[in-house]
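$ ./design --mode recover --in tokens.txt
reading tokens...
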């Protein structure tokens, strides 16, 4: 009876570890997506404005907010994935803290652009 319980607990621990690794990879992938979007935006801006001189872009409040938002979200995602990797036991509390930080960042970005436009 005890060997069956040990086997089940070992399988359960392996499953939890696999889920933690998948969760960490998803968050890291999210950070890479934010970073790639930021580089595509800045690369398009540099290519079309400075090199080809096709369009004239201005660094207005919405463009600046987009750049800062993507950069900060990429940093938050990479930081969160490393925190989950180091503290697997505190995953739920870290997730809650990360979601609150993302919410506050989004609210701050929206209100700062709205106040600047007003």
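writing sequence...
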């Amino acid at each position: 009876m005890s060997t069956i319980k040990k086997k089940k607990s070992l399988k359960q621990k392996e499953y939890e570890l696999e889920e933690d690794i998948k969760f960490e990879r998803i968050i890291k992938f999210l950070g890479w997506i934010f970073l790639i979007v930021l580089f595509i935006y800045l690369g398009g801006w540099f290519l079309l404005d400075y090199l080809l001189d096709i369009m004239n872009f201005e660094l207005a409040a919405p463009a600046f907010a987009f750049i800062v938002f993507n950069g900060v979200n990429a940093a938050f995602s990479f930081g969160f994935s490393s925190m989950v990797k180091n503290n697997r036991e505190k995953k739920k509390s870290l997730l809650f803290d990360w979601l609150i930080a993302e919410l506050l960042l989004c609210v701050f970005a929206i209100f700062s652009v709205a106040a600047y436009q007003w």
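exit 0
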